[in-house]
Amino acid sequence: MAHRGTGFFDGRGHFHKTPEEATIADLAGILGKIGEGDSLAPGIAQMLLERRPEIERLFGEHDTMLQDYQPIGAGSKVTRLEPRAG
C-alpha cells in the first residue's frame, strides 16, 4: 500500500530523511575533500552544524571588528619606515 512521507533534498538533489542530514551534505560539499582516504568533511560539517550558535556568535564578533577596521596604509597616517642600510 502506498504511504506518505517527508524528505529533504540537498543542493545536489540527493534525498535525506532529516533536515540535518541534508544540511550536513551541503556543508560537506562546500568543504570539499579533506584528508587522505575517506573525506573528513562530513564529520566536520556535522560539528559545524552542532556548534552553529558558537560559530554564528564568532562570525558576529568578526563582523563587528571589521566595521571600523582599516588595514595599515589604507587612509591611515602611518608612515612606512624604510629599512636601514648596512
UniProtKB/TrEMBL annotation:
- Reading the lineage from the top rank, the first entry is Bacteria
Task: Quote the protein name from its UniProt record.
Answer: Uncharacterized protein
